Amino acid sequence: MPPPNPANIVAATDDKAGNEASVTTAPDHAKQPAPFPSSWSDIRVGSVVLATEGRQMEGWFEAVVTAAKPNDLFLVKWREWPDDQPFVRKREHLALLPPTEAAKAAK
After folding, report:
1. Spans of all domains in the chain
2. What is the pLDDT of residues 3-35, one digit of tens each?
3. Which end of the chain, N or C, is surrounded by fewer C-beta atoms within 10 Å?
């Protein structure tokens, strides 16, 4: 069974007003393509991915794809440090967020 699409995961809400049972639907922005790709072929401008600085054991951090270049190259920027200079990574040197983490980040 394929993992759930983070764009379709919606938190349930409490109906404290005592109204009839309410139906929780995804907000309009969730119906747009999610910025969290579910496969490497889904990576495009605006996608949130994991990248490393390239040093061994440095760790992986969230980055946003700012441009797609020929030959499967992407220009990415750190998500938490947007003032840092963008850098180039090959598609195979990026990682995808796990679906549960992508759902948390989408909130």
Report:
1. 33-106
2. 444 444 444 334 444 444 433 333 444 344 458
3. N
